[in-house]
Design goal:
This protein is α/β, with parallel strands linked by helices. It has one domain: NAD(P)-binding Rossmann-like Domain (Rossmann fold, 3-Layer(aba) Sandwich), CATH 3.40.50. It contains 5 helices and 7 strands. The protein has a 5-stranded parallel β-sheet with strand order 2-1-5-6-7, sandwiched between helices. A two-stranded antiparallel sheet has the order 3-4. 34% of the residues are buried.
Length: 150
């Protein structure tokens, strides 16, 4: 089943599949420590698939066994030498995405992933213009299940 075409600037399925296969570290701004929240369920499932999910949440100490950082600018404190963030997966309201893109320009992840309902075309265009692949208004877990079901 092909991905929805709601945002034509989203990468095609082949790119997304390859991104998910090659990525190992996901930074997740907005990851909630509450198990009933969608971000928590998605992060838990992605960990089950072998991804390291780094919580980006001010005030949190640890979520799902990973040390939390207050912002993307602090992510270096939890990475080992030679490690880098592959995907920044955003569970924040659209008005926060501009600031996250500014941090991504410094961090240089392979991709910026805006979860379902997180729509900010201007910020997405800014990330794309800087060479950061951007996926908007899609769930990373649903896409992983759809593209890598085996």
């Amino acid at each position: 089943m092909p991905a929805p075409k709601k945002f034509p600037d989203n990468p095609d399925d082949d790119f997304v599949k390859e991104l998910l296969l090659r990525s190992r570290i996901i930074a997740m701004p907005g990851l909630s420590p509450r198990p009933f929240r969608p971000s928590h369920r998605v992060a838990f499932a992605m960990q089950g698939y072998g991804y390291r999910v780094i919580p980006v949440r001010p005030g949190a100490v640890e979520i799902l066994g990973e040390v939390a950082v207050s912002g993307l600018d602090r992510i270096g404190a939890v990475l080992e030498d030679g490690e880098s963030v592959d995907i920044v997966d955003v569970f924040r309201a659209p008005q926060h995405v501009d600031a996250i893109v500014t941090e991504c320009l410094r961090l240089r992840p392979r991709a910026l992933w805006l979860q379902e309902g997180v729509v900010n075309p201007g910020a997405a265009a800014r990330a794309r213009a800087a060479g950061i692949a951007t996926i908007m208004d899609r769930c990373i877990l649903k896409e992983r299940a759809r593209l890598l079901a085996s």
